[in-house]
């Protein structure tokens, strides 16, 4: 029996993003019907029922419900690409609830506590609704993605052209997590018979500093990669040179300063417990992506800050 014939679809907002695209693939491979939502119609080609959804264009909010031609099983939410995204995200949650959606899974971050700024307010709102019995919910708080090194121009260019990694974290450790593992956890939260009604810190299996990452890339690429530790201000200047908006590069500087003083020096077994599979190591990702960092690779990379 094909589950697509029996189950209402799951809406994945940000369905072409780093986690969202993997989540769409993960769900589809297990025969769950999926609606992949993106700001650009062309980016959703190839996904089940790819549709246009723009946080800042209310006229697009009904698109996934029209595409479903019935109720939605659940909604995966990735933040609007602005710093103060909470009001519009909470407005959409209420909009979706009015359309009959019961379960919401929010992608937050390990650095954001419930009730904190931006997405932290959405986290608190879902918790409040859940405590009143009005929604089923989960909040995923993943740490820094392994895929950052192969998908963000800031890292790609310095590794390819300079054989360097830049940070302002000194020798602090981070439990770098695979986006594949985040997607697997998200799928579990979206489809489990029992509602999670909790938050999960989604952390990778090993604590690695930027120097450790450089050493792994050295082995994978066969040339020396060096970590350069910058001041917070110099790091912000580098991000600014890649077109990152001021509010974003200042936030990045603050986050890396927090890491420097130990905020990410932790790990757990959440991925293994929730999915039954061991989380992926960084070396595995580096091997799969090494062509990206080869000098002279002809592929063009999109400025993610545009």
Automatic annotation (TrEMBL):
Residues 9-237 form the NmrA-like domain. Pathway: Alkaloid biosynthesis; ergot alkaloid biosynthesis. Pfam families: NmrA. Keywords: Alkaloid metabolism, Oxidoreductase. One of its GO terms (molecular function) is oxidoreductase activity. GO terms for biological process: alkaloid metabolic process. PANTHER family: PRESTALK A DIFFERENTIATION PROTEIN A, PTHR43162. Belongs to the fgaFS/easG family. This is NmrA-like domain-containing protein. It comes from Lasiosphaeria miniovina.
